[in-house]
Amino acid sequence: MSTEAPQPSPDFALTAGDGSIAEATPAISQEAASVDGTMPLNDKAKYTQKYERPLSAYEKANADEIAPRCVPQPLTEPPPLGAAIEPPIYPERDQESWRFLFERQMDLLPGRAGEAFLEGGETLGLNADGIPHLRDLSASREAATGWQVARIPGLLHERQFFELLANRQFPSTDYIREPHELDYTPAPDLFHDIFGHMPMLTQPAFADFYQLFGQAALNAEGQDRVSLERFHWFTVEFGLIQQAEGLRLFGAGIMSSASEVVHALGDEVTRYGFDPHRIIHQDYDVWHLQDVLFVVKSFDGLVDGFRGWAKGRGLL
């Protein structure tokens, strides 16, 4: 592997907080990168003695025994899909949490959310009146892009997660965060899964990208697995898109977080154009507001860029 620090793609430059184009720089994060690009030097020194391979961001966090719910659990049987999902009866406390979270996010989204996300929410019929049932959402998404919903108990073992994606099945929880976690929850819940993720899976090109991601991930080993985790983080979870009106948000981790919705378009964030080589060398921290993000020009471009990178690595 080359020891040269990754350089920006020639047709992209980082964007300033106001969305203008600034001069590109060779730095890939605010921390010094290790020579092989796997993680910042301070993290690498901290964990090298314990692990013999690159760590995922969740593994690094879990090494400090933070948030046990972020430890993936294996499925012991196939999850229920679509119409087979029995909707739970939610107590009023959960309905109040959904209503609060939905209204808070919707108040923040005008002028920030991408067109595809907003249209997807309308397609799914999301509203503040009550927690939607997964089987109903599955029917709407299947009609739009052929994706079904699979009900899961929590964070999945990665291979089972990838298998579902590869088959156009989105894994979703059906429980909502506790009232004391309304501002932040470290683990998935139905608000993140439904409000954050599902609208984008009604967008045809993005839906195709997510399936390609699952297919590529099933063939990945070693450093490619870490690279794909970073792809997921900087597109599916924290992606931005350049629209005619300016920069807009679409990543689920941003859309389901009040703090990230405001922060992601602010001056404190360094934003780079979509560049697979840069993304796979960009580390991140799951426990803090993100200070480095990536911007796609279009979802068709996301599909083409990812497919080209994955084929080059022999993953597709």
Number of DSSP helical runs: 13
Provide the gyration radius in Å. Answer: 19 Å
What are the low-pLDDT stretches, counting only 5+ consecutive residues below 50? 1-51
**CATH topology call:** Phenylalanine Hydroxylase
> Helix fraction?
40-55%
Strand sequence of the main sheet, in spatial order?
4-3-6-5
Mean pLDDT: 83
| Largest sheet: number of strands, sense, barrel closure | 4 strands, mixed
Structural class: alpha/beta
Q: Give the H and E element order.
A: HHHHHEHEHHHEEHHEHEH
Question: What is the 3D shape?
Answer: globular
CATH homology-level superfamily: Aromatic amino acid hydroxylase
CATH class assignment: Mainly Alpha
Q: What is the count of structural domains?
A: 1
Alpha carbon gap, first and last residue? 21 Å
CATH structural architecture: Orthogonal Bundle
According to DSSP, the number of beta strands is 6
Beta-strand portion reads 5-15%
Question: Can you describe what's shown?
Answer:
The protein is globular and about 50 Å long. Helix 6 (158-166) packs across helix 8. Residues 1-51 have low confidence and may be disordered. With 316 residues, it is an alpha/beta fold. The chain has 13 helices and six strands. It has one domain (41-312): Phenylalanine Hydroxylase (Orthogonal Bundle). A four-stranded mixed sheet has the order 4-3-6-5. A two-stranded parallel ribbon has the order 1-2. A hairpin with a 2-residue loop joins strand 3 (239-243) and strand 4 (246-249).
